[in-house]
Design brief:
Blueprint: H1 13-17, E1 24-26, E2 41-47, H2 61-68, H3 81-88, E3 92-97, E4 102-108, H4 113-125, H5 131-148, H6 152-161, H7 178-187, H8 192-203, E5 209-214, H9 219-230, E6 258-261, E7 269-276, H10 287-295, H11 303-309, E8 313-319, E9 332-340, H12 342-346, H13 348-365, H14 369-384, H15 391-404, H16 422-430, E10 438-442, E11 452-453, E12 460-464, H17 468-475, E13 510-515, E14 518-524, E15 532-540, H18 548-574, E16 578-584, E17 587-595, H19 599-611, H20 617-635, H21 638-650, H22 657-664, H23 669-681, E18 684-691, H24 695-709, E19 730-737, E20 745-756, H25 759-783, E21 789-797, E22 800-810, H26 816-835, H27 839-853, H28 860-872, H29 880-888, H30 893-906, E23 909-916, H31 921-925, H32 961-971, E24 997-998, H33 1002-1007
Parallel strand pairs: 6-10, 14-18, 19-23, 19-24
Antiparallel strand pairs: 1-21, 2-4, 2-5, 3-4, 6-12, 7-9, 7-10, 8-9, 11-12, 13-14, 15-17, 15-18, 16-17, 20-22, 20-23, 21-22
The structure holds zinc ion.
């Protein structure tokens, strides 16, 4: 949520499509996993102005301008000229607008850095801001807003804006959309073009700007370049925007109330919020960090520990997120956010009481030096042994810090705790009193109560006084004997020495153990010389994947295990020892990493909890409810749904989130206990230990795991590989409605399947997608204005290659049929681009990709991820990167052109997955009877366990509160569509649209297909 426009350019498709299941890898993950031996050069510029400075009659103008400066300059007049240049040389760029700052950043190969700086600086020297670009780009801004419309955190933020004092900058609508930037201004006769220019001249001025550059040149050279390029940035000499007059932002009757809000996601949440004076001058003490640490603690004696014991909460966050909205010159927010169980929601007054009791205890005891120093030590060590970050992220952070801290703290001001100051800490914690708090309850259960609509997001909410008996109870808080300060943390590392090891010259992991039940790979750290390590184990079981139940049981197991571990593993977590469980196709993965000294302690704790697994009835029910909600929250996102459905068609056996939701309904506590018993009895274990350990120490991890879990041999034929369906030639369309019935977002992924891959074809396709990225953005987003998120992706689905183009658009603007037609048109446009490509251009692009692949890893984790991938996919091709580089030099432009023509046109196997959003012509055609716009209207109480028929007429959303509660008791579940069994609602495709098939029944479609053999890309 950095700013309002965090990921402005969808140049990071891996985030949107990456295979968390491990089944499918978006091939191009250059941003994350591949680094140059010579690192990329990067620059970031922060303008000390943001949405707070939006004129009252043009909400969103600052954000709009951030977009507009990309649209050509006097020196480089083409729209997107900078993007074209950056993409051509293997870089990326982005920008974001926050309350008081706007940040631009890019990265590129070093040899093009000087030129890129010059092109980029024109954003700030002489942007054209042409009227016709204005017309186009406002749609991108609007589409960005539409895309973020169903995001609860943004909705909540806008709701908080309504509580601010009238006329306060925090009361603004900072996103901007078509209404605020075009329709309303034109009704009022406002000349937006002119105002945008004025805004730029006033605020995009050198005295407000800070710049950070990172490149391997000498400092002198960099300084010379910067002064050559940036001295042309105008400086109007005006004083900086100042909001000092806006004090006590939320000291209004509106704030000290009880709010209720209906979320988009299915979740129950309590949010207690305090507004404090600006805390920036206390950055050396960081009182809110200290308080957030204590209130957010999950160990014994903590708020969360007590709430969980009562089964009232499954998660808790406390503190200030340090982004503009919560941390600015007018105010600092302190939040306690509790994810409630249904039981917790029923006892919400008691939940709040526990939070207040804990704070009162802190106030009574006064600030604790011992705890403060513990946090200080952790932050110090973390900084001292910090992994290198991406240059582009690093400069982004530094240029912002330059606006906030004195020069000696540019690099540390946001991280370190410099000084224990009892008075500052006491002042802050004494402000957190019950009578200064605002209360917000979030739950789908409040639909009937919430009759008000927030102006911009139309979030349903309501507001009332805090009940007087609550207030009365909080006047005299009793001491709660179960609450106390955290004990000393035994996971904090003290030994940072480096181990001697006997493997000096191997570049790749070495197999140091191979038994019928386990295999272990090991590699010491020969590059980074840090006292850290990574330990990954894949526990494979023939049980997993056979049925949707088995997949659900694994999810349940991992979630309960994580809950069981919280109290003990929380200390490890804050001491920067990371642990993570991942559900994979054939079992689970345990990953631990961090300072090597205490890592075995964490690993053994986890294994102990697995070996002595237990769960109470209440915990089982709470986790099950939570997981069911998270499945629902997954499928209402069209981007995730489109992926789920695509893979369910492509993979021979694939349980979608919908299957899982359905399969989980009958499961009870005994099922999970039985499952865990069976799972443990027959496991094949494969591990990787990398980092600051000797071979002997590496073996001890495997030994502990195998001994504790009593692993026994599993024949390999019980662990079959993944197989992929062959999409027949022609076009196949699968079109269905979005589950979120008031969301206009549609998503289309057009996937073009190739065949079993080898390295040669893989890199060919990778290069093609790289070439496609910028034209795709330019054609589909800038020219055709389909939407904010448009991107091509390279697909390696269990060894079967393909590529796709994805577009997120709004049904109110384009039907999926129109969008698909434009996407097809783009393929033709791209064909022309390829045809006209010169050999010179082609080899420049090959060089760019080779350079990217020659990346040096920034830290050990990147190397580990790459190696682990080869272990999970069982190719053990640790030198694949080198092979890919060799292959890149093998093919010609004409081969690429031919490959593209074949796959895009002459022999294409196209699978188009289309999620249709609300409000367009297509979604209207097939609305079934009784289905209303509001998702809360669906209720599935009487349709039975495996009910296929859930189309019975439902209550309208104006049903009375009492009725809802009755139903809730009946079926023991919260109301709402999220509790019904969901099924894809297929929509028809006109015959002339699909040259192949309209897929209306996925299993039937798959029955007619050939299956590819198990494929590994090894040669
Ligand atoms: Zn934006």
């Amino acid at each position: 949520m950095v700013g309002f426009c965090g990921d402005d350019k969808p140049g990071r498709p891996s985030g949107l499509s990456s295979g968390d299941s491990g089944r499918e890898h978006p091939v191009r993950k250059r941003q994350k996993t591949v680094r140059m031996k010579e690192k990329l050069s990067a620059a970031a510029l922060c303008v000390g102005v943001g949405s707070f400075s939006d004129p009252p009659d043009l909400p969103g103008l600052a954000h709009y301008l951030e977009h507009m400066v990309f649209m050509g300059s006097e020196k480089y007049p083409d729209e997107n000229a900078f993007d074209v240049f950056i993409k051509k040389h293997g870089g990326s760029d982005n920008a974001s607008t926050d309350c008081e700052r706007t940040v631009f950043q890019f990265e590129i190969q070093r040899k093009f850095f000087r030129e890129a700086l010059d092109r980029w600086a024109q954003f700030f020297i002489s942007p054209l801001l042409k009227a016709d670009s204005l017309e186009r780009e406002v749609k991108a801004v609007d589409s960005e807003f539409q895309m973020n419309l169903p995001v609860d955190s943004y909705r909540k933020q806008q709701l908080f804006s309504t509580m601010a004092k009238v006329g306060h900058p925090m009361a603004k609508f900072m996103w901007g959309n078509l209404a605020s930037l075009q329709q309303k201004p034109s009704e009022q006769g406002i000349n937006v073009h002119q105002r945008l220019g004025e805004f730029r001249r006033t605020f995009y001025s050198a005295q407000y700007m800070t710049l950070a550059v990172q490149s391997a040149e000498t400092l002198d050279t960099l300084e010379e370049w910067v002064s050559e390029v940036f001295s042309a940035v105008p400086n109007n000499g005006c004083p900086a925007p100042n909001f000092d007059d806006y004090k006590d932002t939320f000291d209004t009757p509106n704030f000290y109330k009880l709010y209720k809000m209906v979320p988009v996601k299915s979740v129950n949440q309590l949010e207690i919020t305090w507004s404090l004076p600006c805390q920036m001058k206390h950055y050396r003490v960081k009182p809110l960090h200290y308080l957030g640490w204590l209130l957010g603690h999950e160990g014994k004696g903590s708020v969360f520990n007590l709430l969980k014991k009562n089964m009232w909460a499954l998660g808790l966050y406390a503190g200030n997120n340090e982004l503009g909205f919560e941390h600015n010159t007018t105010n600092a927010v302190f939040n306690v956010i509790v994810v409630l169980t249904d039981e917790g929601l029923r006892n919400v007054k008691e939940v709040i009481t526990v939070v207040f009791q804990y704070i009162q205890m802190l106030q009574r005891l006064g600030p604790c030096r011992r705890v403060y120093q513990e946090i200080q030590t952790i932050e110090d060590k973390d900084f001292r042994f910090k992994d290198e970050t991406d240059p582009i992220d690093y400069v982004e952070n530094v240029c912002e810090n330059m606006q906030l801290y004195p020069p000696q703290h540019y690099l540390t001001g946001d991280i370190l705790m410099f000084q224990y100051d009892e008075q500052v800490l006491a002042e802050a914690q004494n402000l957190l009193t019950p009578d200064r708090a605002s209360l917000l309850l979030v739950s789908p259960q409040f639909t009937a109560d919430c009759q008000l609509r927030e102006l911009w997001f139309e979030t349903p909410y309501c507001v009332s006084d805090i009940p007087s008996d609550w207030k009365e109870a909080w006047k005299d808080l009793l001491e709660n004997p179960e609450l106390h300060l955290p004990a000393e943390n035994r996971f904090i590392a003290k030994d940072f020495s480096l181990k001697e090891h006997d493997l000096k010259d191997s570049k790749y992991p070495v197999k140091i153990l191979d038994t019928p039940w386990s295999r272990l790979w090991y590699r010491p750290d020969t590059k980074f010389h840090q006292p850290k390590a990574y330990v990954h184990f894949y526990l494979k079981s023939p049980l997993i994947g056979r049925t949707p139940q088995s997949v659900v049981l694994l999810d349940l197991f991992l979630n309960i295990l994580a809950q069981n571990l919280t109290a003990v593993a929380y200390d490890a977590d804050v001491a920067q020892l990371v642990y993570k469980f991942v559900a994979e196709d054939s079992g689970m993965v345990i990953k631990v990493s961090g300072f090597s000294e205490k890592l075995p302690l964490l690993f053994e704790t986890i294994v102990d909890y697995m070996a002595d697994f237990s769960v109470t009835e209440e915990m089982f029910d709470a986790v099950k409810t939570q997981l069911r909600r998270s499945y629902y929250n997954h499928v209402i996102k069209p981007m995730q749904l489109v992926r789920d459905v695509r893979l369910s068609i492509l993979e021979k056996v694939k349980w979608t989130t919908l299957d899982k939701r359905q399969a989980m309904r009958p499961l009870v506590r005994d099922d999970i206990l039985q499952f865990v018993g069976q799972f443990r009895r027959r496991l094949y274990v494969e591990g990787l230990v990398q980092g600051n350990y000797t071979r002997q120490e590496a073996l001890q991890f495997e030994e502990y795991l195998v001994r504790k879990l009593c692993c026994s041999p599993v024949p390999q034929n019980l662990l079959p590989g993944l197989r992929v369906m062959q999409i027949p030639s022609g076009d196949h369309v699968c079109r269905f409605k979005s589950f979120h019935r008031s969301d206009a977002n549609s998503v289309i992924t057009n996937y073009y399947q190739s065949r079993p891959g080898d390295i040669h074809r893989l890199v060919l396709m990778e290069l093609m997608v790289m070439l496609m990225e910028e034209p795709c953005f330019d054609y589909l987003r800038t020219q055709e204005q389909l939407g904010y998120a448009v991107f091509p992706t390279c697909r390696d689905t269990a060894g079967i290659l393909g590529f796709s183009v994805t577009v997120q658009t709004q049904a109110t603007n384009f039907s999926v049929t129109e969008a698909d037609a434009k996407m097809e048109k783009f393929l033709e446009e791209f064909d022309k681009i390829l045809k006209n490509m010169t050999e010179e251009n082609f080899s420049a692009q090959v060089t760019a990709l080779v350079t990217l692949k020659l990346c040096a890893d920034l830290h050990l984790g990147e190397e580990v991820d790459r190696n682990w991938e080869k272990i999970v996919d069982q190719t053990y091709l640790f030198d694949r990167l080198e092979r890919e580089i060799a292959a890149l030099h093998e093919f010609s432009l004409s081969e690429l052109q031919a490959w593209y023509r074949e796959h895009a046109f002459t022999d294409r196997h196209k699978l188009s997955i289309q999620v249709v959003g609300e409000g367009g012509s297509e979604s209207l055609t097939k609305v079934r009877q009784g289905q209303t716009e509001d998702m809360e209207a669906d209720d599935d109480c009487d349709s039975g366990d495996e009910g296929e028929d859930e189309e019975d007429d439902e209550e309208d959303d104006d049903s009375e509160d009492e009725e809802e509660e009755e139903m809730e008791e009946d079926c023991q579940e919260a109301n709402g569509m999220d509790e019904a069994d969901l099924q894809l609602e297929m929509l028809p495709v006109e015959e002339e649209e699909a040259a192949g098939t309209n897929i209306s029944d996925i299993p039937a479609f798959k029955r007619g297909l050939t299956v590819f053999p198990v494929t590994h890309i090894t040669s």
